[in-house]
Amino acid sequence: MTGVKVCGLTRAEDVRCAAALGAVACGFILSASPRRVTAARARALAADAGEALTVAVVTTESAEWIAQQLAECGLQAAQLSAGADGPTVAEVREAAARRGLRPRVIAAADTPDASEADYTLLDTRTPGEYGGTGRTLDWQALAASELPPADRLVLAGGLSPGNVERAITTLHPSMVDVGSGVEAAPGVKDEELLRAFFAAVARADHSRGTTA
User: Fold this and answer.
1) Over the stretch 64-94, which tens digit does the pLDDT of each residue have?
2) What tens digit of pLDDT does each residue of 162-202 get?
């Protein structure tokens, strides 16, 4: 069954909607972004996430800063979106351990030690931006390449209710990560688009026989 991570959450009602629909993860962006929230706001929003994994989404900040934000926010995971431009998985885990934390880590595929993360993230990039571009990856080309194991693959990049079925049936990720594709405006999720996205994921899983 394909998990859904809803990213760039800024409103409590959107977090509650994502959790009610069965999101396995809720992402809160702490780096520069139109969807950025403060540590205090992320902590408050995470309280509405239910059983979903709460994720601090970061880019080029230091491992120490990331660990401090995890401690302040009370979030359960860190998503390292900057790849080689940001800290490594090991650096973040070591900094977190010094604070008594053991976060799960989602790392962009070009992070030097991405293979040591709990999940590997495939996302689109443009100069100066680490995700959130609304652009899709070339799924067919990726399918013909060497990918991380499917059970720890997170697919992002321009996913929407209209294309996520094809993305899942092409790459079979463990989790799909949606942000702008279910928004009315940056950081403002559209409930109908969220429902449509989850329905499309369920259809993809049904067609692959993975609903059990």
Assistant:
1) 999 999 999 999 999 999 999 999 999 999 9
2) 999 999 999 999 999 999 999 999 999 999 999 999 999 99
- Return d(Cα 191, Cα 205) in angstroms, integer: 21
Which contacts qualify for 120-126: CB closer than 8 Å, 24 or more apart? 120/148, 120/152, 120/153, 120/154, 121/79, 121/81, 121/154, 121/156, 121/177, 122/147, 122/153, 122/154, 122/155, 122/156, 122/157, 122/171, 122/173, 123/81, 123/156, 123/157, 123/177, 124/156, 124/157, 124/158
Q: Is pTM beyond 0.90 here?
A: yes
Nearest to 131 by CA among 161, 102, 98, 108: 108
Phi, psi angle pair for 176, to nearest 5° = -110, 145
∠ CA 32-197-75, nearest 5°, is 40
Report DSSP state, residue 151. G
Residue given tokens 């409103």 in the structure block:
11
Asked if 164 and 200 count as a contact pair (C-beta separation under 8 A), the reply is yes
